[in-house]
């Protein structure tokens, strides 16, 4: 660019001076043309075989590395990728030598395909800038996050809580008969089976344990309110992560797990099955669960769920609401459901809204925002208190705490044998 400007200035000066200077005015342009031709020869790349390395699968909400390599890359090479809907990453990436490493984040479940990217570099003499478009065919599958399950953390927690601590505690807790054993000093006399002791002519005690094979239903609201993004992910993905973790905990706890989804009308329903089978089924189903923009009909959905679950069950409802007025039908139908079943209501708090009430406003718009945020939090608290008075267990937590709080609530219900 600088050379072209210099040639133009020289041409203008020659035109002003006139005479012999005007006759040699075309000479700088001829020199510039030769330089441009040489620059093109030195800088053009006929074939640019782009190599890439990308994992076939990644958990939603986690980062993944895309590695690119371009043999014989020109100096100063950069690129811009057309990111698919389910992935986010930097707009521009620079190559280091002939390789580049891009860290992107998975933000939507599904199978996402890359189609093209743009390279850009400046020619050797900086006369040209090349921006070719390359066809870039790569695919990655974004699946529900089961990192906690894979790490073994949930298994350790459930086993130690239900089968370690509980079975080492005093005999007599629980409601399901486990076995008979000789009565020894220190055991509760209430556990003595007097009829069997009389036949054996020695004291025999019943050992009881927590009842298993309870029905656990994971009811997931997939309406438009669950598409709201919190902490970089839609609420539905936070709900799916917590649901999968709870399904695994129920599998370890010996319960039967089913699932149910709904929006404007009931959608999928799977009857409770043994936990490990149900977990695999639930993981496959949630991987294909679409993001929809339909309003949720709680009356129809919860009435249908009540009809499909005649046996007393633990029903875990993942849903959302806007305010106390819009939640009236939700509260009414949960109240009907709570008469037969034990319910856990899972709500995901928005940290950004809570942060607004902690900041002092410095202008009138800030005051209005503060008032709106306070009203939202107050109405949310009012709805949750009404549900709690109906006997519903409330799990109201930030995205990063939902899973742990929900599993703790499940283990407490198991330990207290409330189902």
Explain this structure.
The protein has four domains: 2-43; 51-143, Immunoglobulins (Immunoglobulin-like, Sandwich), CATH 2.60.40; 147-151 and 212-416, von Willebrand factor, type A domain (Rossmann fold, 3-Layer(aba) Sandwich); 167-209, no CATH class. The chain is of the alpha/beta class and 419 residues long. It is 39% helix and 27% strand. The chain is built from 13 helices and 20 strands. The longest helix has 26 residues, at 364-389. Strands 2, 4, 6, 8, 9 and 10 form a six-stranded mixed beta sheet that branches. A six-stranded mixed beta sheet has the order 17-16-13-18-19-20, sandwiched between helices. Strand 8 (110-122) and strand 9 form a beta hairpin. The chain has helices at 2-17, 20-23, 26-43, 147-151, 153-165, 194-200, 235-252, 275-287, 298-308, 328-338, 351-356, 364-389, 402-416; strands at residues 51-53, 57-59, 63-69, 78-81, 87-88, 93-94, 99-106, 110-122, 129-130, 133-143, 176-182, 204-209, 215-221, 229-230, 233-234, 256-262, 266-274, 314-318, 342-348, 393-397. The N and C termini lie far apart (78 Å).
Summarize it.
The protein has 419 residues and is of the alpha/beta class.
SSE inventory with pairings:
Elements: H1 2-17, H2 20-23, H3 26-43, E1 51-53, E2 57-59, E3 63-69, E4 78-81, E5 87-88, E6 93-94, E7 99-106, E8 110-122, E9 129-130, E10 133-143, H4 147-151, H5 153-165, E11 176-182, H6 194-200, E12 204-209, E13 215-221, E14 229-230, E15 233-234, H7 235-252, E16 256-262, E17 266-274, H8 275-287, H9 298-308, E18 314-318, H10 328-338, E19 342-348, H11 351-356, H12 364-389, E20 393-397, H13 402-416
Parallel strand pairs: 2-10, 13-16, 13-18, 18-19, 19-20
Antiparallel strand pairs: 1-3, 3-7, 4-6, 4-8, 5-7, 8-9, 8-10, 11-12, 14-15, 16-17
